[in-house]
Amino acid sequence: MTPTDSDGELIEASSDEATETARDPTARVGPGAPAGTQLARAGVPGALFDDQGMADTFGRYLVRQRLGAGGMGVVYEAYDPDLAREVALKLVNVAAWDHVAALDEAKALAKLSHPNVVPIYDVGLERDRVYLVMELVRGNTLRLWPEGRKLRGNHPIVAV
Fold this sequence. Notes:
The protein has 160 residues and is an alpha+beta fold. The chain is 19% helix and 26% strand. The longest helix is centred in the middle third of the chain and has 12 residues, at 99-110.
């Protein structure tokens, strides 16, 4: 999966950029902060990665790399050593006073079972952050998906 910023633009980051981003003060912005392009590009690596870009743990999960970000939070590729599987770890952007509501919503989402909905394996609160652990689904971004596809009547699909 190719990481994108909050506007859906592809982010190409070299290891030098990742190290510089880890030193960026916007990377340490806490829950409830506006999720603009700067915050999405920062991806909160300061909270999860050291200055060398080495993986850190978040709860029981070993964080490997940032996959993308948007208005609802930042998603990382992670590894669950207890169940020996790769997962997607989403840190949700919510203010401290909204933690209970966010956790309740995450628990409700975890009860869903449908072929078109990514399963949620775990939800919780760690380091004052609400998180969701989901199946890691590899593929293109939704912005790239419509390329070359047409609706009925041969009208191209346009990503907005």
